[in-house]
Design brief:
The complex is a heterodimer. Chain A is mostly helical. Helix content of chain A is about 80%, strand content about 0%. Chain B has one domain: Orthogonal Bundle (Tetracycline Repressor, domain 2), CATH 1.10.357. The chains are: A mainly alpha, B mainly alpha.
Chain lengths: ~260, ~325
Amino acid sequence: MPVENGKCRITDPPCLLLAGTGLLALLAIVYDTTIPFSLALTSLIALSLAIKILYNYKYIVSIIILIVGSAWLLTFTGNPRLGLLGLILTYLASIIASARAGVNAGLAVFSSSSVPFIVSFPAQAGGVWNPDAIRLASACCVLMAGLVSASLSGKMHPLSITIVAPLVAVLPPQAAASSTAIAFMLAISTAEAIKMVGCPFSVDSGLLFYGTITGIIGVLLECTGLNVLGIGLWATGFLLQLAGVLIPPLPLRSRAS
Amino acid sequence: MNCVKTGSNRSPTEDAGTQRSMIKMGQSRLLERIKLLLVMTKPTQLALLMWTMYGAYFIGGGSLNLKTLLLLFLTGLGSAGGVTALNMYIESDIDKIMPRTSKRPLPSGALSQKEAIAGITLLILVGTIAAGLINKWVMLATLIGLYFDIIAYTEIAKRSTEWSLLFGSVAGSMPALGGWAAATGKISLPGVLLAGIVYVWQPLHVAFIHYYYYNDYSRAGIPTIPGELGTGTFALLAVFSVIMVPLILFIFIVFEKYGIITLIITIILVIKSLRKIKLFSINPSREAAREMIKYASPLVGVVFLLLPLEHILAVSVQLKLLF
């Protein structure tokens, strides 16, 4: 459903999905509080972003089916490595969707932010945080961040990233720090991607910069063991970064006047 | 700047004097910048948000612990104020177009973009840390506020749909939820209901402001409910909004077993507001909208003033019964 001049009514699917996003965020708060929450929030924000970028709910629905399917698979089998299957599917979907640059950017942002969320399902099973799953999440982030920059810049073949990703998965990195740092890389490359595909946003470098600084402080605190505060600042930083890449243009009417 | 001399033939006393005056100038410039930054937090609106936050804190049974009260103040100032300032930063292009907002620190050039964003980030950082030091639920409330105000409302919805205020209102209700979470250490139904009271009241208030400044919003190309849906539908929505306040308050009373006095006074205010809405729908005018803004504004303030008092009363009665 293409939206004319970026204008939509509350009954239109993008608006309903946006409202649903808020509701899901509230549910996420009620049922979960720590790391999966920040990942869930990230996914939900990315969903809003994707809706705005794509202007087309069909893509979103298909992506959601894909993501939920992968989540179900992971939860059902309890094997985080099966997440790779979801990754491959997402990767294939993005190649198919790359016929439209805007679609590719939206898809990449959404899926890259959602994959850690999926991985967090089995990782939290039994109340034990699974280091393997975290490594896998980090790998997923690398893969998707690479996918965004590679497919949009044309400087690197997406396949090279696909080879690098499993290497990260077998390394024993500082889990939270690595995955967060990668998420920041992703956000910055996304900003570039959005600029390149000419989506209806401008980028505010100041917000992006201070968002990154805030997020890094969060990561440092997280590494020193101050989890709640660390996650809070990480999420604040991420939100500021997103705000930095979503600066809206002036409405058409005011531009005309 | 005649106090600054160049050359190497200055005495040490002169150098020290120059240094002192430069430090003084720097300090006054910094103070001026801080004042401008505080203007960007919209102090009147911030005061009302703080009111709901402290109100919810005391309704939740919060103690007069100075440390918590100070942390709550920093949370409100940093998060609610910081997010409002960030909103103003993002919308400085629109503020330039609207006569009402063209004199704000950013469009008027009194504060540079760089200074503003550095100060705003610092404010938000202070707010998040203070919230985190209270408990994780308060911090979550601040994060939801940041998300809904900046991303969902300002950046995604405001310039494309007249229903944007439904997203913005979520952010406005978060201080109340944060206050409740600070007192109880959790997010529970009564806290959500308190936030709900602020949530349903806000569209009423904001939509009348939209009506009052309709020309400004129209010039900036921002869709508003009065502009897009017409006065009739707008008045109906206002009725719905105002009726929801005592209704949610009633549900709160069912769960918490106190608040009858607040409910009675709220119903009186609501009846008066409904009369004003009726007058507005018969003869819509800027003056009638202004009257309505005046009437609607104290509604939430009254709820968050009386309900804490009733809570204290209820607790003292319970204590008397116990002993």
